[in-house]
Amino acid sequence: MGFYDEIEIEDMIWDDAKGVFHYPCPCGDRFEISRKQLANGEDIAVCPSCSLVIRIIYDYLDFEDEGDDDEEVKEEEAEESDDNADEKFEDAVERLEVDLTSRMAEARV
């Protein structure tokens, strides 16, 4: 694959709103690459308006922890799911106890 250019990450601009590094393309648009892409070892940024491609020069170790955010979110979601399951179980037990109590009261009458 032929690259239009090789650009060091330090020469790119971080766009906090979009969550990407960008670099101007000669066509007037800009090359973009996210921190997550860099963490996944991707070093190619493509211009969305033309066919140009650049290679990003960066230190993978600076971005390797970026992928951990997704794992933390998944763990938190799993914990919330477990908490919801526990709450549903407790609610079911409580309804069963109430139902059992009311049936016992009816049986006494």
TrEMBL record:
Keywords: Iron, Metal-binding
Family note: Belongs to the DPH3 family.
Domain of life: Eukaryota
Signal peptide bounds: none
Biased composition (Acidic residues): 66-85
GO terms (BP aspect): protein histidyl modification to diphthamide
Pathway annotation from the record: Protein modification; peptidyl-diphthamide biosynthesis
Protein name: Diphthamide biosynthesis protein 3
Organism: Dacryopinax primogenitus (strain DJM 731) (Brown rot fungus)
Domain DPH-type MB: 3-59
Region Disordered, annotated ranges: 66-90
GO MF annotation terms: metal ion binding
Matches recorded under InterPro entries: DPH3/4-like (IPR044248), DPH_MB_dom (IPR007872), DPH_MB_sf (IPR036671)
Family annotation (Gene3D superfamilies): DPH Zinc finger (3.10.660.10)
Catalytic activity: 2 [3Fe-4S](0)-[protein] + 2 Fe(2+)-[Dph3] + NADH = 2 [4Fe-4S](1+)-[protein] + 2 [Dph3] + NAD(+) + H(+); [3Fe-4S](1+)-[protein] + Fe(2+)-[Dph3] = [3Fe-4S](0)-[protein] + Fe(3+)-[Dph3]
Assembly mode: Component of the 2-(3-amino-3-carboxypropyl)histidine synthase complex composed of DPH1, DPH2, DPH3 and a NADH-dependent reductase, predominantly CBR1.
Entries under Pfam families matching the protein: Zn_ribbon_CSL (PF05207)
